[in-house]
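Re: that backbone. Tokens:
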């Protein structure tokens, strides 16, 4: 195990970890990173790297640049100010971070991570997914009977797509040949069949490799040559890799032994890969063949995957297993598994379920955040380890765990500046945001903003269309919803304080203009935006107007509550305005309480404040 910074390179299991999170890394980039990490602090020339990793295969040097870009993105590294990989122009690379062979158990997070890693993947529990596992098993049985199948496992980031597929084939993959490929963002335009080549490479290196190579040599020699096996060749062009040849070879393999192809993150796949999967699904001959692919929900992407999946669904050639949030009971089982303890502190499950909204990745990150902040502690009680909270969970301030914040930040940075502005303005409204409010905050045309929101909902996985609002003038406005509160929190905290205030003020003004004489109906919302903008007088005025309307409709208790809120905000006015305004509101509030029959909380005076 090699450690550098927050990362661990597991050379035994060929994977990369950041703290307790496994980072998807294809075999070739892993090989490059491993060689760099194992030779830190010195120049590694392009030729040395190519000769060490691909001694008998011609690989164009430009491929190294692609792998370096991918590695820097995964490591969060900057080529201009490298913390890990330094580029030495026209010479090669140097791994500049300190590398350690020993993993220091600095805190409880590391300790439970090591215990979880040592347990191995076979012992990891898939919780709350019995129905989904059952559907996958049914598809596998259909494929085993010769009815080729394609299964799409869909859902938001962190919902457990990869974990579900891993658990499925570990349980039911016995007797099947399994080949796995990872799609990587940014490579679809540069390298055709990237995940296919990775899957085939793994297949040829597996226990079924001898059989696979023999079939490929006979039916699809161009593909075998592209893998650096079989006939010697200086270079292999795409024209030598015929999709029909590969389909025939895979079908021949499936005659000898059922074949399961797994592709992860298919929404990043190149079109050639998608065409190949379509061909595998639509060929008429029986085949004991199944393709399982994880991908983002189709209605949030403009990728060709959407049309391909719809086409196969109409022909009953595929099925979709959509993963939703975990129920509270499933989150409890997940926490028991992660903390390696059956007895959980009271309130922990509810707190994690509420703030993770049932997303497994978020749930684990929140627990690790509680441990890192020393709010959740492991103590020895009667010789046994137990987890204890440092206080009541309801008093714990909800924060975005740092690694989740970094993940979300990376996704946001991948959007255009205009898209970031739209989402930022939406975050000012809250979890749900109407297009008119975004337009008001940005001071731009509502129709154009609505088109921008609709485009984001199609392409960006963390925002979706929620429906339509009817405005006071009878017109309709689309509204959108952040699929998770953590996305909204990260977007909101990215905004400068002055920008937040400006956008809150504009939304409050727009609300007042839209509702006019009926502004009392949205008084609390207006007051919230005025307060966030630091416009105390506007907030007080909105609440007092609503209280006056409540008095007219005999809703005296409601009027008293509105005035109590107004009194709290009036305390923040400047010295000259505060005294007179506080006095007026107190008189109005006492009158409202008297009309309500004395019900409600009594007025308490402390240090001149209500």
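Recovered sequence:
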């Amino acid at each position: 195990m090699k450690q550098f910074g927050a990362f661990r390179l597991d050379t035994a299991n060929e994977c990369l970890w950041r703290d307790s999170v496994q980072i998807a890394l294809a075999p070739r980039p892993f090989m490059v990173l491993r060689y760099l990490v194992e030779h830190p602090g010195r120049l590694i020339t392009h030729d040395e790297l190519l000769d060490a990793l691909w001694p008998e295969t011609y690989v164009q040097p430009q491929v190294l640049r692609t792998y370096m870009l991918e590695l820097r993105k995964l490591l969060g590294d900057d080529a201009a100010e490298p913390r890990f990989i330094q580029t030495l122009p026209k010479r090669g690379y140097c791994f500049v971070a300190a590398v350690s062979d020993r993993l220091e158990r600095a805190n409880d997070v590391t300790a439970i991570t090591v215990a979880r890693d040592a347990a191995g993947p076979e012992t990891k529990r898939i919780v709350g997914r019995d129905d989904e596992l059952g559907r996958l098993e049914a598809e596998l049985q259909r494929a085993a009977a010769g009815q080729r199948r394609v299964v799409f496992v869909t859902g938001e980031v962190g919902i457990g797509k990869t974990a579900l597929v891993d658990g499925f084939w570990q349980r039911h993959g016995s007797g099947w040949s399994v080949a796995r490929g990872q799609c990587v963002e940014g490579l679809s335009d540069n390298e055709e069949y990237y995940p296919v080549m990775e899957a085939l490479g793994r297949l040829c290196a597996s226990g079924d490799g001898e059989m696979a190579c023999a079939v490929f040599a006979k039916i699809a020699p161009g593909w075998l040559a592209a893998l650096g096996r079989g006939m010697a060749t200086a270079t292999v062009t795409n024209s030598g890799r015929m999709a029909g040849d590969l389909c025939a070879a895979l079908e021949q393999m499936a005659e000898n032994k059922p074949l399961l192809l797994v592709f992860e993150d298919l929404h990043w796949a190149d079109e050639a890969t998608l065409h190949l999967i379509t061909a595998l699904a639509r060929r008429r001959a029986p085949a004991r063949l199944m393709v399982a692919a994880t991908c983002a929900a189709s209605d949030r992407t403009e990728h060709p995957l959407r049309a391909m999946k719809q086409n196969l669904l109409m022909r009953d050639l595929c099925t979709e297993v959509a993963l939703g949030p975990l129920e509270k009971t499933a989150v409890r089982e997940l926490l028991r598994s992660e903390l390696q303890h059956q007895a959980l502190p009271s309130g922990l499950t509810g707190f994690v379920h509420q703030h993770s909204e049932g997303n497994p990745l978020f749930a684990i990150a929140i627990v690790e955040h509680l441990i890192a902040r020393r709010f959740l502690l492991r103590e020895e009680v009667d010789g046994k380890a137990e987890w204890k909270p440092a206080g009541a969970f309801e008093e714990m301030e909800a924060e975005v765990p740092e690694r989740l914040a970094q993940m979300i930040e990376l996704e946001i940075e991948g959007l255009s500046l205009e898209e970031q502005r739209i989402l930022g303005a939406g975050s000012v409204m809250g979890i749900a945001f109407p297009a008119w409010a975004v337009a008001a905050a940005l001071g731009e045309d509502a129709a154009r903003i609505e088109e921008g929101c609709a485009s984001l909902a199609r392409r960006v996985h963390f925002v979706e269309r929620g429906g339509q609002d009817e405005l006071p003038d009878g017109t309709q406005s689309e509204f959108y919803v952040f699929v998770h509160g953590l996305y909204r929190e990260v977007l909101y905290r990215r905004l400068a304080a002055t920008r937040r205030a400006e956008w809150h003020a504009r939304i409050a003004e727009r609300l007042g203009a839209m509702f006019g004489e009926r502004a009392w109906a949205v008084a609390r919302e207006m007051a919230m935006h005025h307060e966030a903008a630091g416009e105390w007088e506007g907030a007080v005025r909105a609440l007092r107007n609503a209280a006056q309307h409540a008095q007219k409709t005999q809703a005296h208790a409601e009027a008293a509550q509105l005035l109590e809120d107004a009194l709290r905000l009036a305390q923040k006015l400047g010295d000259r305005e505060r005294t007179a305004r506080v006095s007026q509101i107190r008189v109005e509030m006492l009158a409202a309480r008297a009309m309500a029959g004395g019900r409600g909380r009594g007025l308490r005076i402390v240090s001149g404040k209500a």
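DSSP finds 25 helices and 17 strands in the chain. The longest helix spans residues 575-595.
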